[in-house]
Design brief:
By secondary structure, this protein is mainly alpha-helical. It has helices at residues 2-37, 42-69. The chain is built from 2 helices and no strands.
Length: 71
């Protein structure tokens, strides 16, 4: 019934948030490694980090909104 629907929504939202956290964590880890290897490229790498993290956040927000809207 309705309880299983709420359980499914909650599970889905948790999975979306977990996926976004893991993705941003991997982006940050790779960026730190890259900057450690090539400090002179830190400006370019930082810009790419911000763009990538924003894309991951955008997808996760859209997924959360869709889960909230869909019944």
């Amino acid at each position: 019934g309705a309880g299983m629907g709420l359980f499914g929504k909650g599970t889905g939202m948790g999975m979306v948030i977990l996926g976004a956290c893991l993705g941003i964590g991997r982006i940050g880890s790779a960026a730190v490694d890259s900057i450690a290897r090539q400090p002179e490229a830190s400006g370019t790498i930082s810009t790419q980090i911000i763009i990538s993290a924003a894309l991951v956040e955008g997808v996760s927000v859209i997924a959360l909104i869709l889960m909230y809207i869909l019944k």
